[in-house]
Every structure is written in structure tokens, then in C-alpha cells.
Amino acid sequence: MKTVIYLLIAGLLFTSCSGRQQKISSNNGFAVLPHPDANEAVATFAGGCFWAMQESMIQLKGVNTVISGYAGGSTVNPTYEDVLTKNTGHAESVQVYYNPAVISYEQLVHAFFFAHDPTQLNRQGPDVGNDYRSIAFYRSPAELKTITKVMSEMEAAKYYPSSFVTEMEPFQVFYPAESSHQDYYERNLWDPYIRSVSRPKVMHVRKELPQLIKNEYLK
Questions:
Q1: Containing structural domain, residue 153
Q2: Beta strands in the chain (DSSP E)
Q3: By the 8 A CB rule, do 57 and 111 touch?
Q4: What is the mean pLDDT of residues 124-133?
Q5: What is the pTM of this model?
Q6: Exposed end of the chain (fewer CB within 10 Å): N or C?
Q7: Residue pair 62/41 in contact by the 8 Å Cβ criterion
Q8: Residues 183/36, Cβ–Cβ less than 8 Å
Q9: Pick from 64, 186, 164: nearest CA to 116
Q10: Which residue numbers are catalytic?
Q11: CATH number of the domain that residue 126 is part of
């Protein structure tokens, strides 16, 4: 469904901007991954459409930059169209650059699980396929332990009615998506898909973690 809507509106020139867009560099039509600052850590997640996940993460205090892209597969430098074929192995993902002195990795993991339904296998609502699967990529044994802990706690609390199907994979590589997909949520607030599918996910994070939301996103 997202694909159809995206193709229908790709050529439109009208946008609805809130003024919260990131300053993401571009090269040959693709976003450029920033080099982490000395006080930054990096985390990578996949949980359905990256339009919603990017917005869900950038609204958090301590999160400086969020890049939409592709991870978890084997194809080198995939395009959006490549990933849509379901043959690359990649999932739509986000890479989060954050200050661990302000927000912890555990808090990011909580936000990740609130930003999508981790009990849906190879889909998120109307978006179906392995490119929409739920994955938490870990960079250390400590991060894997944190992901496992949060999943166990949320399952025990029966926050969701079914068991989590989120994959836990060691991080290998993240390919940034096309510049047209960066801050798509903020640039296209009028988009029917954004309003009906993405916005509820973003609002869910705000509802569950209000203490972690930047002031400008609460206005």
C-alpha cells in the first residue's frame, strides 16, 4: 500500500513543512552518513516503514540525527526499488546518532518497540514483506543483553497480546536511503499514508514516553 501511495505522490511539488527537518547531506541522490561526534553513540533498528521510524526517533531528547536506509540483507548499495522486490534481504531501517549522556540505549530500545508492533511477522499493518520486518541490530554483547531484557519485560507485562517476533542481529552494514526518503514525514504531513499509518506510530511513542520527547515536538 505504501508503495502505491508513494508512486502516486512522488511527482507532486506541494509539501507541508514544520521547520524541524534535519540537515542531512546528499551525494548522487542518496543521504550521506555522518561521522559520529566524540560524545555520540550509534544504534540501528528496523520496524516497518522508515518514514515513521525516523520521525519516532528524531523526536527523542538526546537524539541528534536519524538517517533512513537499509540493513539486514546482502545486496550492496541497494535502492528503494531494489528493496521493494523483497529479494535483497534488507529491511527498511534507521540509524540513530544519539548522546548517551542524555538518552540511554535502553530508552531507545523502548522507543523502538513503541514505534511499531513487534508481534507482526514480516509486516507492519498494510505494509507486507520481509523488508518491513522487525529487527534490533546490536553492536555489543551489552546491547544484545539490553534488547533481550526490554523484550522480556514488555512480554511479561503483556503490553502486546502476542509474543515478539523481533529479530536480534549483530550489526554489519547500513546503507543510507535516497535523499527523497529523509525526513519524509516532516515534509509530507498532508500525505494520506503519513496521516493514517505513520502518525499513529509517532503519536504512540509520544504517549508512552512523554518525558523523552523534545519540547518542540510537544507544541
A1: 40-202
A2: 26-27, 30-31, 41-47, 63-71, 91-98, 123-124, 127-128, 134-138, 167-170, 174-176
A3: yes
A4: 97
A5: 0.92
A6: C
A7: no
A8: no
A9: 164
A10: 49
A11: 3.30.1060.10
Q: What is the mean pLDDT of the chain?
A: 93
For residue 33, with 0-12 CB atoms within 10 Å meaning exposed, 13-18 middle and 19 or more buried, which class applies? middle
191 occurs within a structural domain: yes
DSSP states of 112-148 as a string?
Answer: HHHSS-TTSTTEETTEESGGG-EEEEESSHHHHHHHH
- 158 Cα distance to chain centroid: 23
Is 215 contained in some domain?
no
Task: Tell me the three state secondary structure of residue 21.
Answer: coil
pLDDT surpassing 60 at residue 152: yes
pLDDT of residue 135: 98
Instruction: Report if residue 102 sits inside a domain.
Output: yes
What is the mean predicted confidence (pLDDT) over 63-82? 98
Structure confidence by residue, pLDDT tens digits, 162-178: 999 999 999 999 999 99
Write the CB contacts of 63 (distance below 8 Å, at least 6 apart in sequence).
57, 96, 97, 98, 99, 103, 108
